[in-house]
Amino acid sequence: MPAAVHVESRTRHRRVTLHRRHRGAVLGMYHPNRVTTSGNTTHFEVSYLTALGSRGAALAQALLDSCERDYATLQAIFGGLTPKHLPFVVQVTADNSGASHSSCMGTDIAVGANSGPTVDLIRSLLVAEADEVFMANFGRGWNCGGSNGEGLSRVLANDMYPGAQTPGFVTANDWLDIKARPNWVSRNDSTDVRFRSIGCSVLFLNWLRFQLGYAWPDIVAAGAGTLSATYLHLTGKRSAWKDFQAFMNAHFPPGKKYHLRSDNPFPV
């Protein structure tokens, strides 16, 4: 039987950092009386913490109902790729701070049942972790432990479940509300826990997709370690930061508080 993942609390972060891989996650078997298997699909095995009762069973079934559809969407975005180490072994836990897996390649995923109010939010958490596995297998500079990869995991999940994002997920404001906005386009932040760099990443990626009109498969295929290099591959231009900064400053002038309810304000 595949090992289940144990998720440590992440409430020590400044804000609930939902659907983030936790580097301290440890693998270990739960006692059989504590976990109930819900079912299997072609690419997923889903169980839930028995103590969650009917709610855990309902959430696990909801994931089973949508996981293969979402897998097919991600597979198409990543050029038909099939990740290694399948199936995804998913456990619905009592955690309230999102979802996690043991590493970027780790197909062991824990999803916190108490992370949000809707089923689609829980589904989006699974998508965000699964797409990090696709990233790790795909390569091309998409690093789930860095700001560009963390940004990609978020925008794909949010696009697949529009409207599911809650205030605790929104990172765009953390970058927009800075008067002197830092450039996380030309360089990649080496952590996936800094909301200011992630906020820049999600805005830039959504700008590429929904303002400039590039498709997700093309954006993903253009990956190259930094968002500016991705822009170069897409457009042939070396002016990623200059172009993005000019657009954002024109439509979202610095020095204001924007209170966006989503990481995607585009098109504008």
Question: What does this protein structure show overall?
Answer:
- The chain has eight helices and seven strands.
- With 268 residues, it is an alpha/beta fold.
- The model is unreliable at 1-32 (pLDDT under 50).
State the main characteristics.
single chain; 268 residues; alpha/beta; 2 domains; five-stranded mixed sheet; two-stranded antiparallel sheet; 8 helices; 7 strands; 12% strand; disordered N terminus
Q: Give the helix tally.
A: 8
Total discrete domains = 2
Distance N terminus to C terminus? 50 Å
Instruction: Report the order of strands and helices.
Output: EEEEHEEEHHHHHHH
Strand order, biggest sheet?
Answer: 3-4-5-7-6
The low-pLDDT segments are 1-32
- How many β-strand stretches? 7
- Largest β sheet strand count, sense and barrel closure: 5 strands, mixed
Relative strand content: 5-15%
Helix content: 40-55%
Rg over CA atoms: 18 Å
Gross geometry:
globular
What does the oligomeric state look like here? single chain
Protein structure class? alpha/beta
Kindly report the average pLDDT value: 89
List the helices and strands and how they pair.
Blueprint: E1 4-6, E2 26-28, E3 35-40, E4 44-49, H1 53-77, E5 88-93, E6 99-101, E7 108-112, H2 119-138, H3 147-160, H4 172-176, H5 195-211, H6 216-221, H7 227-235, H8 240-251
Helix pairs in contact: 1-2, 2-3, 3-5
Q: Care to give the gist of this entry?
A:
With 268 residues, the protein is of the alpha/beta class.
